[in-house]
Write a structure and sequence with these properties.
By secondary structure, the chain is mainly β. A hairpin with an 8-residue loop joins β8 and β9 (181-193).
Length: 650
Amino acid sequence: MSIFLALPVLLFSQRKKDVNSAKEMDYNTKYNSSDTIKKKKAPEATIDMYRIISLEKDTTYIDTTQSIRKAYGFNYLRKDNFGLMSFSNIGETYNTLQYGLNGFSPYPGFGFTAKQFNYSKPEEIRYANVATPVTELYFRTTIVRGQSTDVFFSLNPSPQLNFSVAYRALRSEGRYINQEARTNNFRFTASYNTKDERYVLKSHYVAQKIQNEENGGISNVSNFESGDSSFDNRARLGVYFEDAMSILKGKRFFVDQTFRINPKKGENNLYVTEQFNYETIFFNYSQQTIASNVGGEIVDRFGESFVTSGMNDRTTYNKVYNRLGAVYENMTLGSFTFFVDDLHSNYFYNNILYFDSETVPNLLSQAINDIGGQYNYRKDKWNGKFSYSKSITNQNLSNLDASAIYDLNDENQISFRYQNMNRLPNNNYNLYQSSYKKYNWSNDFVNEKLNSISVNADTKWVSLSLQYNSIKDYLYFADISTDAERAAKTQIVAPSQYGQIINYASLKVAREFVVGKFALDNTLLFQKVDQSNNVLNVPEFVTRNTLYYTDKIFNKKLFFQTGIEFNYFSSYYSNSYNPLVGEFFVQDKVKIGNFPLVDYFINAKIQRTRFYLKAEHLNSLFSKSNYFSAPDYPYRDFLIRFGLVWNFFN
């Protein structure tokens, strides 16, 4: 049996086809190894035989084309990160510029959300079905020493059975003291269906580790902002911690299966479904030296500690989730689902802590049961879904989610969504233990209430996205440091809840203008928040504008694009980052933003290999040193990086 290697974003070989050169290059040649040696023509695979399938059964085809949109996703997260502000080193966290970008869930999460941007969730795992073995290799340089790689391989031993294996790894030293990032992400998927599709199975196993040296930010911002050439070597800038480290590590086993009760599929069908998810996660923060030396002054950055050295805080979490469902499907009316959810989770520490004013327990154990229903309709140009679930245990959890998509034609689509959610707090809001005395708490916050409406229009002229959210009992981390503590450079953070209503509205507009071989791609985001106190803070304006040139040279065998990418967001009170709790927190002392980020890039493609060369933050060579990802955390300096994505088809 022939073996093949594959990665998540590929196509197979293709026949050259004339397209607008400012758009993506589309090679649609069917691959045949007999191009140079004449022999008996082998059967050829077509595009629709190389499929990538989501958990919700949305299907796309493996794609090796090159375009400016594909270039936006050539990064550490492997997706377009518009609305996120990366930190100076690759593999660090991101500051979120757009509220709601990561979606919402009614269930309580583990927490430590600043560490989970590259943590793969069940709904993000993709399954494959391929005619021949496929491999994709991703490589990109990082900062100072290290590299970023992602390797994906998939094959079908039979038309009904597929396996895929993927491994993502990163090491990036960074330019500042104690900033090295290391990540590992192993993914294995298996999908199977019987020939008559009476039984369908999707399963995966994921093991991932995100490890960061944590320096707590630079301790003297004025040294960075001064533009003094003696600090061009960023390792000369003082930081709060020189030996702190955080590790987020998790393993997950997941199964989703469907069985049709009637032997043959007909006008009316009855199914039983089951979904199982077992996951373990831990977050570990360690710090050998407790006190920080800031310009010769001893600083207790996170306040007093129970230990004088060698602290090691560890939070552990596990959960078992089951969903059992029954589905009635009518080929005219759609499908009706009734389901029951069962979630058991444990969030715990080793010891119970006794203080004069309170006792902090070591365990937060939850048992949640939901019942709900879902209606799906897909016919002609309409695709709709309506679902509702509510807890039958005492957590008062509920989720109503209604959406509809209308395809006017192949190039124009309109979608609507409404969500009403009563969501439980993440576990680290209600319980946290640390070696730092003021970072220990036990709370009983009420649920967040969220109403969300969104309208999206994707047309050949423009893409529009309108969103409105109303949030009550918003949960966040707050800076509760006293004036004396701030003067001593001590940072105390704790969870808080805002009992009033917050109204958030956003409009996102995307439009590309093409003139010959030149193009200008624009994405603009406008946001407005109505609130009595500044607890949900976002920039009012975010933009990305890319001016580029596209051509095909060397007898049209080399496709390339070159141009300038411009990013900007308006000044605002950005959330700041606290590595001890692995979260961003609200502050009202320091504004960031109102600075441009200019990159120069060259993208190219030869056959099924895509090349990327980018000079990042080009304007930092001559601009003021006023660029920050978060307070105390400068954005990266000028940097040239190279990478490629290489696809193989056997």
